[in-house]
Structure formats: structure tokens, C-alpha cells
């Protein structure tokens, strides 16, 4: 008895959603470190402090859409990303149905089980929203709703700044299709948020004037041009990377077969393949040159993995058609490829996500402080995960303050009795605060020190450790 494809998709999505929901509930932490909790606190507290809705670092669109979910805690934010990820896979499937892809339902597995996409899907980071906007824009474009497509895409820079890379791609596609009226709507999101900035922040150009991404390689470093390519096994995973390569070959074979580029192929390559290539190239270049406050984090590639998954399906279909009409052989191929793709991320990443070595140290230090007689004292810190673990309002100046004003040993800015948390990752880099400036300062008393079971160094080269001090005199 055959099952309708639509029913099969619903069953598949329910099963996968339940499984991914279990991964979130079972996880102690999330991949991506302190950035998760920075996004969470902006999203969670935006209703209490409305200006946070336009916090540039937090990504305004992400904050606005996720804030209702964040009221249920960090796991609420994770479920927000999970819902977006599943919507992304559905719209990718619907897009491929419109352009008559074979095995279009298979893209759902390709997207959800791409290694870097899966691990970010159960996080509190912004890349999933970015990918959703791209896929939704592509779907609307193929649905001949060109103005709606442009409007949706216009907001992408408020989910991640590098979204501007996709503007020329969509403008080209609109011009190629002679849908000239849609082109101006690429500016719609910028105008909307700029007007909000004018009335709330008194700054129409706040997107540029309040851009937090300054700094260069002296702080963030730089690396190889092929850094992301060399990490393909952690990003795409080997099975999907092989299919992606075959997908590129299949595009070339299609061009040769047609004797050139068809209209359909030009649009597909423009909206899907070129978006991935341009994004990958841009991030590779800025990391190589030490620009744009890039840390070379491979997680940024999860933002365009839905596009890569479509190209990989193009490659799979080439193999699928070459098999011939033997349906049992085709079923075997599909089961084998599906098994390899689903298994791969769990071989690469530890899922459910447990606290890493750094987070374990912070958890111990925060737990110690919460159970000590100093628990009600104001805390100065740099690591947002530490503040998250304390469970205090990070924007309440009576409870805590991010940043430690100790530029001078005689600083009078920290009142007596307050707690200073020093960590080896952020304090000496973001705060320019060496540990000796506290250890050798008679105004501060060391309360407790915390170190990992196995020593490791931070990206700045310091052995990781956390120390808690109290200001005892001026």
C-alpha cells in the first residue's frame, strides 16, 4: 500500500522534530560557547529593556522573532531555531517540487543532518534564521512572487550582517526575469529598521554608525585562505561533500548536454549555487586577511548549508538516474545514502551537547558563588555564560556589570564588597586585564580559584582558569 508523499513528509517531520527536541532537552549546553547566551539574554530581556530590540550585535530581526520563545528560558530559544530549521527544510522541499527535482523530499534529510547545520540547529545562534530567510526568498521567487521574495530577503542583514552578499544575486535574478518592479524592494528592510532607529535611537543610519564589528587580526587573528575548505568534513560531512562535488559535475554535464545555459539553469545556479560559493568565498577571504572581526569559526557556514544540501541532492539524482530502472537498487542506494548522512554528524559532534571544559569550570565557579555568603554582592565579569549561570538580570546595574573597570590599579569605580570574576578567555583580551593586576593588588582579596581537570589554552594563548576576587578596600 503506497503512502502519499505529503503524508510521508508529515510523518518524517514529526519523528525528526521529536528526536531533535529530545536532543535539546537532554543537552546541558549548546555549541557556540558564550555567543549563545549573549543572544539569549538580549532576546529574553528585550521586553524589559526595549532598546535591546535594536541591539546591533544581537541581530534585531533575530531578537524580535525569538523573544517570545526566550521567555521560556534558553531551551525556548533553542526550540525557536529548531522550528526555523524544520520550516527551512519544508520550504526547500517545496521549492524543489516547483522546479521538478527528483527525490525532492530527500532534501529534508540532507539539510537537517548536515553536520554543522544540525549542531547549530540545537543552539541559540543566528545562522539558522539566516538560512531560513534565504530559502523562503528562493521559494517565493520560484512561486513568481518576486516582490514578496525581495521584501523577505531585504531583512536578511538584520539576521546576520553578511546577508548583503545576497542582494546582488537576487537583483540579477530579478533583472534576468525582467521583474524590474521587485528590485527596489531589496531596500525595504533597511528602510523599516532605519526608521525604527530614527525614532528609538535618534539615528537613521544606526546600522552603520553602531556597527560593533571593528577590530582586526591583532585581536581576532587570521588564517589560511582554504580554512573552510579544509574543514569540509566538520561542515558538510564527507557523504554530502562527495554528493556536492558530483552536483557540480552534474551542472556541468547539463550545460554540455544543452549546448549552453538554459533560462531555468541560469536562475538555479544564480539563486542556489552562487549564493553558497559567494558566501564561502567571502568568509574565506576575510579570515585570510584578518578582516571583519572574523575568528574563522566554521559554524558561520551553517547559514548556507540548505543551499549546499540542494546542490548535493542534484549530485545524488545524477547517480540515481544512472542506475537505470532497477527500483530495488535505487531503494538500496537511497537507504544507504540516507543512513550515512544521518550517522555522520553524530560521529563528528557529541550530541546531546554536554558542557565543555571551559563551561565546566564556569559552572563550578558560578555554583560556588551562588552557595557562598557573597551571593548577593554585585558581580563584575566578562564571560556571558558565567552571568547566565548566576541567573541574574545582566542589565540590572545593582546585580552585575559586564566589564571590569580596572584600567588603573587605583580604580575607585568598583565599590567595596563587590565580586570580580576573572577568566582567562575574555578578561585579558576583551578587558586588557592581566591576572597579576588583581593578584598583586592589595585592594582585592582572592576568594577562590577554579581550573579544568585537564589544562588547555585559550585562543589568545592563556592557560584557562577562573578566579573570584572581592574588593576589600579603596
Concise summary:
The chain has helices spanning 5-26, 34-45, 60-70, 74-98, 106-112, 115-121, 127-142, 146-154, 167-176, 188-200, 206-209, 217-220, 227-230, 232-235, 238-258, 263-289, 305-322, 327-348, 357-371, 384-390, 436-439, and strands at 379-381, 400-402, 419-423, 444-450, 466-471. By secondary structure, the protein is mostly helical.
Q: How is this structure best described in words?
A:
The protein contains 21 helices and 5 strands. The longest helix is centred in the middle third of the chain and has 27 residues, at 263-289. Strands 2-1-3-5-4 form a 5-stranded mixed sheet. The model has no long low-confidence stretch (mean pLDDT 92). It is globular, with a radius of gyration of 24 Å. It has 2 domains: 5-348, no CATH class; 357-471. 55% of the residues lie in helices and 5% in strands. It is mainly alpha-helical.
Amino acid at each position: 500500500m503506497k503512502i502519499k508523499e505529503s503524508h510521508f513528509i508529515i510523518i518524517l517531520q514529526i519523528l525528526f522534530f521529536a528526536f531533535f527536541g529530545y536532543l535539546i532537552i537532554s543537552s546541558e549546553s549548546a555549541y557556540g560557547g558564550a555567543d549563545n547566551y549573549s543572544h539569549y539574554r538580549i532576546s529574553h530581556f528585550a521586553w524589559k529593556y526595549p532598546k535591546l530590540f535594536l541591539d546591533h550585535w544581537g541581530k534585531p530581526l533575530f531578537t524580535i522573532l525569538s523573544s517570545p520563545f526566550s521567555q521560556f528560558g534558553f531551551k525556548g530559544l533553542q526550540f525557536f531555531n529548531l522550528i526555523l530549521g524544520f520550516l527551512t527544510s519544508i520550504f526547500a522541499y517545496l521549492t524543489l517540487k516547483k522546479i521538478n527535482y527528483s527525490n525532492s523530499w530527500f532534501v529534508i534529510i540532507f539539510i537537517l543532518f548536515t553536520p554543522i547545520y544540525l549542531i547549530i540547529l540545537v543552539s541559540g545562534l543566528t545562522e539558522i534564521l539566516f538560512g531560513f530567510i534565504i530559502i523562503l526568498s528562493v521559494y517565493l521567487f520560484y512561486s513568481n512572487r518576486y516582490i514578496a521574495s525581495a521584501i523577505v530577503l531585504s531583512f536578511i542583514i538584520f539576521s546576520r550582517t553578511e546577508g548583503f552578499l545576497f542582494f546582488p544575486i537576487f537583483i540579477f535574478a530579478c533583472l534576468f526575469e525582467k521583474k524590474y518592479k521587485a528590485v527596489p524592494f531589496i531596500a525595504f528592510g533597511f528602510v523599516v529598521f532605519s526608521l525604527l532607529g530614527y525614532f528609538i535611537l535618534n539615528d537613521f543610519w544606526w546600522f552603520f554608525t553602531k556597527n560593533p564589528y571593528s577590530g582586526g587580526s591583532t585581536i581576532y587573528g587570521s588564517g589560511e585562505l582554504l580554512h573552510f575548505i579544509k574543514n569540509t568534513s566538520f561542515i558538510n560531512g564527507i557523504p554530502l561533500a562527495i554528493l556536492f562535488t558530483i552536483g557540480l559535475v552534474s551542472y556541468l554535464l547539463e550545460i554540455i548536454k544543452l549546448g549552453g545555459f538554459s533560462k531555468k539553469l541560469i536562475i538555479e545556479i544564480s539563486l542556489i549555487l552562487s549564493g553558497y560559493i559567494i558566501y564561502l568565498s567571502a568568509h574565506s577571504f576575510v579570515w585570510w586577511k584578518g578582516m571583519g572581526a572574523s575568528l574563522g569559526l566554521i559554524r558561520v557556514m551553517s547559514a548556507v548549508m540548505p543551499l549546499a544540501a540542494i546542490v548535493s541532492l542534484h549530485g545524488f539524482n545524477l547517480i540515481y538516474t544512472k542506475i537505470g530502472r532497477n527500483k530495488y537498487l535505487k531503494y538500496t542506494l537511497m537507504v544507504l545514502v540516507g543512513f550515512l548522512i544521518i550517522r555522520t554528524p553524530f560521529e563528528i559532534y557529541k550530541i546531546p551537547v554536554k558542557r565543555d571544559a571551559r563551561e565546566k569550570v564556569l559552572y563550578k565557579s558560578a555554583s560556588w558563588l551562588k552557595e557562598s555568603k557573597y551571593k548577593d554582592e554585585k558581580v563584575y565579569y566578562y564571560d556571558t555564560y558565567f552571568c547566565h549561570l548566576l541567573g541574574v538580570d545582566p542589565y540590572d546595574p545593582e546585580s552585575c556589570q559586564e566589564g571590569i573597570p580596572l584600567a588603573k590599579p587605583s580604580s575607585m569605580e568598583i565599590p567595596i564588597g563587590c565580586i570580580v570574576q576573572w577568566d582567562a578567555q575574555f578578561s585579558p583580551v576583551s578587558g586588557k586585564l592581566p591576572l597579576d593586576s588583581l593578584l598583586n593588588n592589595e585592594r582585592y582579596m582572592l576568594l577562590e580559584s577554579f581550573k579544568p581537570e585537564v589544562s588547555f589554552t585559550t585562543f589568545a594563548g592563556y592557560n584557562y582558569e577562573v578566579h573570584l576576587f572581592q574588593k576589600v578596600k579603596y
